[in-house]
Specification:
Elements lengths: L1 H12 L19 H9 L28 E3 L2 E2 L2 H13 L2 H14 L9 E4 L4 H7 L3 H13 L8 E3 L11 H8 L3 E3 L7 E9 L3 H12 L4 E9 L1
Parallel strand pairs: 1-7, 2-7, 3-6, 6-7
Antiparallel strand pairs: 4-5
Helix pairs in contact: 3-4, 4-6
Bound molecules: zinc ion (2 copies).
One zinc ion binds next to loops.
Amino acid sequence: MMRKFFTDLINFFFPPICPLCRRLINDNKIICEDCFEDIARLLVKEPLCLKCGKTKKHAHICKKTFLFDEIVTLFYYRDKVAKLIHFYKYNRRKKFANLLLNFLKNRVQYLKDGYDFILSVPLHPARKRERGFDQNEVFCREISKSLDIPYVKNLIYRIRYTKPQAGLKKEKREKNIKNAFIIYGNLRGKKIILFDDVITTGATLNELSALLKEKGVEKITALTLAIA
Ligand SMILES: [Zn+2]
Ligand SMILES: [Zn+2]
């Protein structure tokens, strides 16, 4: 009762506003209904092509080759989806992550069987300090629960502080991320899910996949929230 009173009071003075379009929201939603529909429209529709991560249209002949074996994606990285991911990354508002996770949990059913563990593309420790958290860890912990596959955090380290990949051209991205990681342990014969929030050219996931394959990993399935 008291709690409702305070919520009403807060809502009266600070009415909830959709962070994506700045319009008032009436109920307890995170974003307004129109924005929710816009987000849902940006889902990569199934069936997915596991080679390129996009929709497998009729007579889809895929020429894409990455150094990981498969890729499962969720959204196209544009408009309100890009905005939402950006919001979450820089403001750490868990509710934005939850919104994306609701979609992600359905999509990861592709990955139910046959994986030993989940790894994520890590931030450099200095960048993690700057930002206060690693957004990939938050998603991986939830995916791990949802699929009942362990999330292993201390295998991959980022040893070089790189420029953000955003804004760099393909060749520059490859150069920028080269030798940025080290991996510990023998991973011979392992099958893993490798998570990153966004894939653009694939330079980061490729760089890590090459290292993981050197360590003997048998199968790598990249999983991303969004694909550019
Ligand atoms: Zn809205
Ligand atoms: Zn394809």
